[in-house]
């Protein structure tokens, strides 16, 4: 009887050790997978619909949205143990008009549990001033067509483009009431030029668990109402045409607050 009990105890101890060992092997293996950032652009608790949606900002001003584009770059993920995995050469142009652009996939991420994501809104100074041969894909100034995400006159990218109409804006020569809020400027070009690059760091509500068979998706809410009521209250009746770097700084300060994590999906492939 004692022998049977001893064998049974050894069996269970062996099972526990094997389970822990397998779990550690799973986490610490050399396998890699991806994490996808999914950007869900919203207006408060409402879905953003281009051209047809009618919304109201914190000043009680009505507006519709015709364009929402912004660059995401310099993404990094922090593990539970503090290790940071960086992606300095990945640039994404998020466009509300292009559903395919709303998901940014970061590849070859080492297996592990990630508790934090960080990214920049804009294009850093190093890449903005690099040779055109290094600015390909979404960074190719000649590839935008109607997007117009590059200031040829200022040799710089528009980090954030937010356009639409509002009844509080006087009519222009064509009888329309448009607003155009364009943010750019990485600083350093002159001593008087603002740096409107903004870095956002967000804790993950539950860890993104990268495994050989799990490629997590981080679902982000992006509330554009924060453009109007962040650090600075912005009224369309007063601020509706922003095309210069220094005047765009309050907008950059505001939209830094528009990102939040809705959920993390760790579904197996």
What does this structure look like?
The protein has 269 residues and is mainly β. The chain folds into two domains: 1-30; 32-265, no CATH class. The chain is 14% helix and 42% strand. It has three helices and 14 strands. Strands 3, 4, 5, 7, 8, 9, 10, 11 and 13 form a nine-stranded mixed beta sheet that branches. Strands 1, 2, 6, 12 and 14 form a five-stranded mixed beta sheet that branches. The radius of gyration is 23 Å and the shape is globular. 29% of the residues are buried. Mean pLDDT is 88; it is low at 15-25. It holds the Pfam family MbnP. This is MbnP family protein. Residues 33-240 form the Copper-binding protein MbnP-like domain.
